């Protein structure tokens, strides 16, 4: 595999994680297991977690700061299992200390980051309220939403696109720059290079339906979970809640690059991962469960899954082998705090 063959794009965010409780969720109108964009009512939460100026939170919650953003987490996961200089990631950050932390974390995992930098707004953040095995994510995109298609069109950035053989875009980026996604997607289709996308959150299927539908025709592999799949079906007026049928239906939607069939990969937590093909086949891959006492934090498990999958897929492994690696890396991640990977460099498949 040559240098930087996997190109990823998304919203780089500094994750601010606390082990919370129902009262904290209720205070800001949050659900225990959901991902949303911050509204005005959530800004105090972001501010409190970031500055720790409020005595209540200092006493009751211990924040952990993690370099995050869903697509960057997946990119770090892929690079974690890939040879050096395999993965490059593009997004937008502020000119501040948090961007420095993000770079340091990425470099630690071997990920090359080619950030667009803006001076007028800070690096984005994501409050992660952990309650048991649930996590409520509230993203304040800030600098991340300033990414502009003009950046990817510069010769310095476009060379990373042209050099890549595989592409992964996080669904949250649909809220920022559909134009940038389409530039990459169209290039991938024209050159018959696999383009992969993540549904990422149920609210995207509802409130960014048009943006998603404009990109999906270019998608060769679509990732999501059962909640997101059901949201997609609901918002397209499909009269079914059967996840297999939804995955199959998505796989058969119109596609620009007819040289590749669409594959839809749907995770279901503890239940088997579904892989639907446009030829009508659905394969199930059981999840190897670990003892619940060993689960530390499920935040980022889906990103770890995608990272593990891509790490094998870009090396020419089968879909089954890619899913196995995805399950393996997700298991490793949920035994750590946040969207993290083991400090020691592990190899896959394990010896």
TrEMBL record:
<feature type="active site" description="Proton acceptor">
    <location>
        <position position="303"/>
    </location>
</feature>
<keyword id="KW-0547">Nucleotide-binding</keyword>
<dbReference type="InterPro" id="IPR002173">
    <property type="entry name" value="Carboh/pur_kinase_PfkB_CS"/>
</dbReference>
<keyword id="KW-0067">ATP-binding</keyword>
<dbReference type="GO" id="GO:0005634">
    <property type="term" value="C:nucleus"/>
</dbReference>
<keyword id="KW-0418">Kinase</keyword>
<keyword id="KW-0808">Transferase</keyword>
<comment type="pathway">
    <text>Purine metabolism; AMP biosynthesis via salvage pathway; AMP from adenosine: step 1/1.</text>
</comment>
<dbReference type="Pfam" id="PF00294">
    <property type="entry name" value="PfkB"/>
</dbReference>
<keyword id="KW-0660">Purine salvage</keyword>
<dbReference type="InterPro" id="IPR001805">
    <property type="entry name" value="Adenokinase"/>
</dbReference>
<keyword id="KW-0460">Magnesium</keyword>
<dbReference type="GO" id="GO:0044209">
    <property type="term" value="P:AMP salvage"/>
</dbReference>
<dbReference type="GO" id="GO:0005524">
    <property type="term" value="F:ATP binding"/>
</dbReference>
<dbReference type="GO" id="GO:0006144">
    <property type="term" value="P:purine nucleobase metabolic process"/>
</dbReference>
<comment type="similarity">
    <text>Belongs to the carbohydrate kinase PfkB family.</text>
</comment>
<dbReference type="InterPro" id="IPR011611">
    <property type="entry name" value="PfkB_dom"/>
</dbReference>
<feature type="domain" description="Carbohydrate kinase PfkB">
    <location>
        <begin position="54"/>
        <end position="344"/>
    </location>
</feature>
<protein>
    <recommendedName>
        <fullName>Adenosine kinase</fullName>
        <ecNumber>2.7.1.20</ecNumber>
    </recommendedName>
</protein>
<dbReference type="GO" id="GO:0006166">
    <property type="term" value="P:purine ribonucleoside salvage"/>
</dbReference>
<dbReference type="InterPro" id="IPR029056">
    <property type="entry name" value="Ribokinase-like"/>
</dbReference>
<comment type="function">
    <text>ATP dependent phosphorylation of adenosine and other related nucleoside analogs to monophosphate derivatives.</text>
</comment>
<dbReference type="GO" id="GO:0004001">
    <property type="term" value="F:adenosine kinase activity"/>
</dbReference>
<dbReference type="GO" id="GO:0005829">
    <property type="term" value="C:cytosol"/>
</dbReference>
């Amino acid at each position: 595999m040559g240098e930087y063959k996997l190109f990823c794009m998304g919203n780089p965010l500094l994750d601010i994680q606390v082990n919370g409780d129902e009262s904290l969720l209720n205070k800001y109108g949050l659900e225990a297991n959901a991902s949303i964009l911050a509204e005005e009512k959530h800004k105090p939460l972001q501010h409190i977690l970031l500055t720790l100026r409020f005595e209540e939170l200092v006493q009751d919650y211990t924040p952990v700061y993690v370099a995050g953003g869903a697509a960057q987490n997946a990119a770090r996961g892929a690079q974690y299992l890939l040879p050096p200089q395999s993965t490059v990631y593009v997004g937008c950050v502020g000119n501040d200390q948090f961007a420095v932390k993000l770079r340091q974390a990425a470099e630690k995992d071997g990920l090359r980051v080619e950030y667009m930098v803006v001076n007028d707004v800070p690096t984005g953040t994501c409050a992660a309220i952990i309650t048991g095995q649930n996590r409520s994510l509230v993203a304040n995109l800030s600098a991340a939403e300033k990414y502009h298609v003009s950046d990817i069109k510069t010769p310095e950035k476009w060379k990373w696109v042209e050099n890549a053989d595989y592409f992964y875009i996080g669904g949250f980026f649909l809220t920022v720059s559909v134009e940038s996604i389409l530039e990459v997607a169209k290039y991938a289709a024209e050159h018959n290079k696999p383009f992969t996308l993540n549904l990422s959150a149920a609210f995207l299927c509802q409130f960014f339906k048009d943006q998603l539908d404009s990109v999906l025709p270019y998608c060769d592999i679509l990732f999501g979970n059962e909640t997101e799949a059901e949201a997609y079906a609901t918002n397209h007026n499909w009269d079914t809640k059967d996840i297999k049928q939804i995955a199959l239906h998505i796989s058969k939607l119109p596609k620009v690059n007819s040289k590749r069939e669409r594959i839809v990969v749907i995770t279901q937590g503890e239940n088997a991962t579904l892989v639907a093909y446009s030829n009508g086949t659905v394969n199930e891959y059981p999840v190897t469960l670990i003892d619940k006492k060993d689960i530390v934090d499920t935040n980022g498990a889906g990103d770890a899954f995608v990272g593990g999958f891509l790490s094998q897929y870009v090396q020419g492994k089968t879909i089954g082998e890619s899913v196995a690696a995805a399950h393996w890396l997700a298991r490793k991640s949920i035994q750590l705090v946040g969207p993290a990977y083991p400090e020691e460099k592990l190899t896959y498949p394990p010896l």
